[in-house]
Amino acid sequence: MTFPELAAKLSPLMPELRGRLGANEPLAPLTWFRVGGPAQALFMPADEDDLAYFLKRLPPEIPVTVIGLGSNLIVRDGGVEGVVIRLSAKGFGGIEVLENHRLSVGAATPDVKAARAAAEAGIDGLAFFRGIPGCVGGALRMNAGAHGGETKDALVEAHGVTRRGERVSFSNADMGFSYRHSSAPGDVIFTRAVFQGERGDPAKILAEMDRITQAREASQPIREKTGGSTFKNPPGHKAWQLIDAAGCRGLVVGDAQVSEMHCNFLINRGAATAADIEALGEEVRRRVRERSGVELQWEIKRIGVGA
């Protein structure tokens, strides 16, 4: 499927644009599930100035969707209308060690890289990021957490750009964090975050990160085409236990399957479509609802239109 040309219409409006703007760009290679259709236009800004310039000149009626590393994402088979923005590691992947055990991290930085930089600088309290398969921008948007830590526990401030191209910043309190959620304005594209840790022993922190790595490899299908945890844990429950009790472990739709290793993970066995994966997730939700009366909520973000 292809969309009507958009990039060529936008380029004349932005003669000083430095980033890459492409038309009908495939998105499947940018997601961990390796499924989905194209972006009508895909923009990768050179830096924050370039992002602000683009957004100021983008007509307001054109929708904008932001993606990160694609680890917590299903792109539907018909693709995504409007502009998809993906921040590059080159422009938004910088890390700076600050005074008082703080770390400034670009939004495109993988969480694991932020954890390692903190460890090597002797900053304790950020090792939990080792267990989160994504980037810092996504962690800010969904208050990502793992192994006893959440983004809200460490964030000092977040910086970003609005849909109108205005630079903004948010304190921890401004972010309105709750479980796997931030109430920061949805039109903000996060570009950088500052995290607070405490003095620590690099060797001990790295050992803790190794422990987290081993725990993930032993319990999660991290070498499969997957999107990480599929559903949020309902209050008082663990999603995987509800899914298991509903008889969904190993359940298959098309070429998508509920992981045998960890049944809150869906996997693409090789030829699954986005529709297969989403239908499997909805079937899991139906069976859990009928078995236990609990309504599972998607943790994986789903974007775009069907085939």
Task: List the topology elements.
Layout: H1 7-10, E1 20-26, E2 38-44, H2 48-57, E3 64-67, E4 73-75, E5 80-86, H3 89-92, E6 95-98, E7 102-106, H4 111-120, E8 123-124, H5 136-142, E9 145-146, E10 149-150, E11 155-161, E12 167-171, E13 189-196, E14 198-199, H6 202-219, E15 225-229, H7 239-245, E16 252-253, E17 256-258, E18 265-268, H8 274-292, E19 301-303
Parallel strand pairs: 2-5, 3-5, 4-19
Antiparallel strand pairs: 1-2, 6-7, 7-13, 8-14, 9-10, 11-12, 11-13, 15-18, 16-17, 17-18
Helix pairs in contact: 4-6
Please tell me the total number of domains.
Answer: 3
User: What is the string of helix and strand elements?
Assistant: HEEHEEEHEEHEHEEEEEEHEHEEEHE
CA distance, first residue to last residue: 8 Å
Would you report the number of β strands? 19
Helical fraction equals 25-40%
Mean pLDDT: 96
Overall 3D shape: globular
- Our estimate of the beta-strand percent is 25-35%
For the biggest sheet, the summary is:
5 strands, antiparallel
Total helical segments:
8
Radius of gyration based on Cα positions: 20 Å
Given the helix and strand composition, which structural class is it? alpha+beta
Kindly report the oligomeric state of this protein: single chain
Query: What is the strand arrangement across the widest sheet?
Result: 6-7-13-11-12
Q: Tell me the CATH architecture of the largest domain.
A: 2-Layer Sandwich
CATH topology of the largest domain: Uridine Diphospho-n-acetylenolpyruvylglucosamine Reductase, domain 3
Question: Which CATH class of the largest domain?
Answer: Alpha Beta
